[in-house]
Amino acid sequence: METNQTTRGATWLRMLTGAAAPRYDWPSVQVCDAPLAGQPARWIAVVPDPANRFPRARNGEVGLVEGWQLAKALQDLVDEDRDAPVKRPVVAVIDVPSQAYGRREEAFGIHQALAGAAGAYAQARLAGHPVIGLIVGLAMSGAFLAHCYQANRLVALDDPGVMVHAMGKASAARVTLRTVEALEQLAASVPPMAYDIQNYASLGLLWKTLQVSDPAHPNEQDLAQVAGTLEAALADIMEDQERSLSTRLQGRHRAASRRVRELLEQEWEAGNQTN
Amino acid sequence: MSTPIEQLLTRDSFIERNARSRATALLDAGTMRELAGPFARLHSPWLAKQQLVTQSDDGVVVAKGLMNGKPTVVLAIEGGFQGGSMGEIGAAKIAGSLELAARDNRKGIPTQAVILFETGGVRLQEANLGLAGIAEIQSAIVDLRRYQPVVGVSAGTVGCYGGMSIAAGLCSYLVVTREARLGLNGPQVIEQEAGVAEFDARNRALIWGLTGGEQRTASGLADACVADDTLEIRATVAALFARGVPARHRSERAADYLAALARVDTSTQPVAADVRAIYPHGDA
């Protein structure tokens, strides 16, 4: 793994926004305003803060404070645009190695902080803000649920340093009573268990993947390519009346998700007549 | 007045009931109808690929019926199957039902939902599809709670962990018992990721002291801590529905929680009393 893994989010945020001034005085949750497709947009990334008061959240993890700050940033946006005819888009630049694992975090209810963030992203989307998630590095587990699995569209760089998963390999092996080697073997044949972005893309959860020349140090061409894809994602959201996550259900590995929903719908209506 | 022993003998335990029985008990007598039930044979395709045991309902019961005469769907997770973990099918049953309940409300039918959380979170054998399914559950809770309260119950003994603890944090109201535990990261995982000094997964007193139902209620992260008694749980859920949609959901109180967290002394590890002092009576 590259040593500068966790700074990818900060790099892409800075370059895509032209180093726009931060909107809040927050070291680990960076929020700024910069145009997308020539229109105002809000950009958000979670970045490392080596001086974080919470020691388990110093490497870019989403912790207690980060979760609630994400929530605050999105609530402020929704409030500011409450009466606006056009709601500003949100771009979440995603490079989050994990949620913060620690005793302080559990004691003070990190689950509730992450619910703050996930709920605020969902509320922004339901309020009509186009929400785009750009995965440039890691998108792990609870951290990804908080920032920002609730997006209308998810875009990921196609690169070995880009990974999506529910749990790190060592912990996943411990919980499932397997060795790391056995876990890796299974991951090779069971697509939802894999850690790489190509297998993840096969699940149908991403809107687009794109290859750039250097994901850790993007050049002008890389930037233009990513900006173009974000603009296309915005246009795609604007054309779509749907504000739910239903576009994610079409993947070839999601037949069971579709089957369950069909069945529920058939049986639900019958229930409304008798109940 | 009966003695505590008599009360114990006559009590109808909720924890000892399985998911289907819990759902039935919460709904008005004779109104429970199961959707996408075990005879639909919705076996996890992913567990089967790994030569692991499947179950024909994938560990989630969708029960539609009435609660005090109101259209209600109960989504009950079976903690006894794969630790209540969320795979593709179980998550789709919960998310799909919540989506239909929200659609009902948009059509003028005031369907409300109860979720019974007995879950370790994502089923790691279905990893990314479990995680995606949980994101869809979270989305559907936020949609539905605009119209009707979404009430979560975690009775025990599995508890509520991982991405599903975040889903619980999105509910309008949360009911727990003393046996319940509510937290993002399970003790084993914290010990694995951060070391035994950070969290000793064998220290039961530490786990329940910080994340148990009583502590969560005393610090305002849950709304009611009730006895393991089916009638009491049902009455508590009904009373919470009667309160209506809260003016502000717990997950919307970012400014309050940020202000409270600014008061935390992070130089030492907190004990339960520290948390109660920072979040007094739940007024973060």
Task: Describe what is shown at a glance.
The complex is a heterodimer of chains A (275) and B (284). Chain A is an alpha/beta fold and 275 residues long.
Give an account of the 3D structure.
The complex is a heterodimer of chains A (275) and B (284). Chain A is of the alpha/beta class and 275 residues long. Chain A has ten helices and seven strands. Chain A has helices at 8-16, 64-80, 103-107, 110-126, 141-146, 169-175, 180-189, 197-201, 220-239, 255-274, and strands at 29-36, 39-46, 90-96, 131-140, 153-157, 163-165, 208-210. In chain A, strands 1, 2, 3, 4, 5, 6 and 7 form a seven-stranded mixed beta sheet that branches. In chain A, α2 (64-80) packs parallel to α4 and α6 packs across α7 (180-189). Chain B starts with a helix and ends in a 6-residue tail after the last helix. Chain B is an alpha/beta fold. Chain B has a single domain, classed as 2-enoyl-CoA Hydratase, Chain A, domain 1, CATH 3.90.226.10. Chain B is globular and about 55 Å long. Chain B has a seven-stranded mixed beta sheet, with helices on both faces. Classes of the chains: A alpha/beta (275), B alpha/beta (284). The interface between A and B is large, with 84 and 93 residues.
What is the CATH domain class of chain B?
Alpha Beta
Query: How many strands, which pairing sense, and closed or not: the largest β-sheet of chain A?
Result: 7 strands, mixed
Tally of strands of chain A: 7
CATH class of the largest domain in chain A: Alpha Beta
Helix content of chain A: 40-55%
Number of domains as seen in the coordinates of chain B: 1
Structurally, the number of domains of chain A stands at 2
